[in-house]
Specification:
3-stranded mixed sheet, two-stranded antiparallel ribbon, alpha+beta, Arc Repressor Mutant, subunit A, 6 helices, Dna Ligase, domain 1, 157 residues
Length: 157
């Protein structure tokens, strides 16, 4: 027996439907499958991962639907895009955290760890204000080597 949707889920669904309606789009079965898939994947995922999950919910979801839906998901704050400078981007379901987050990215296996970095918001505002500017966005990413990759690298030496 499926679990009833949480109030947060219903609220996000309504907000997403309102957002796409404002754009003159309909809440099609395929778009809503992408929405549900995006919310249900734990951790960081690629567009390909999202497509697999969405197709498990609705076989008619196409690659084009995924790539058209991603900007809608980002624009409605359902997911956040994480660009780690590779040939693809990652996405992460927004958890509603008001605290700024930074990423630790393993250079070898591309594991991404989200860390709370509340000082970054203050720092960004302070530096921008010093130069008469207003921050629009900022990011902090640290490229590192995870423990598993460190061990693998040491074993090869």
């Amino acid at each position: 027996m499926p679990k009833p949707p949480s109030s947060e889920s219903v609220e996000q669904s309504g907000a997403f439907r309102a957002f796409i309606a404002q754009k003159g789009l309909r809440a099609t079965r395929q778009r809503m499958a992408v929405f549900e898939a995006a919310r249900s994947i734990q951790g960081h995922y690629t567009a390909e991962d999202l497509m697999k999950k969405a197709r498990a919910l609705d076989r008619s979801v196409s690659r084009a639907t995924i790539y058209r839906a991603i900007p809608l998901l980002i624009g409605s704050s359902i997911v956040r895009e994480v660009d780690v400078g590779r040939d693809h981007k990652y996405y992460l379901a927004e958890a509603g955290s008001a605290t700024f987050r930074a990423q630790l990215i393993c250079e070898s296996c591309e594991t991404i760890v989200e860390v709370e970095a509340p000082f970054m918001e203050w720092y960004g505002k302070a530096v921008a204000a010093k130069h008469g500017m207003r921050p629009i966005s900022q990011k902090l990413q640290v490229t590192a080597l995870c423990e598993r990759c460190q061990k693998r690298k040491t074993a090869r030496l």
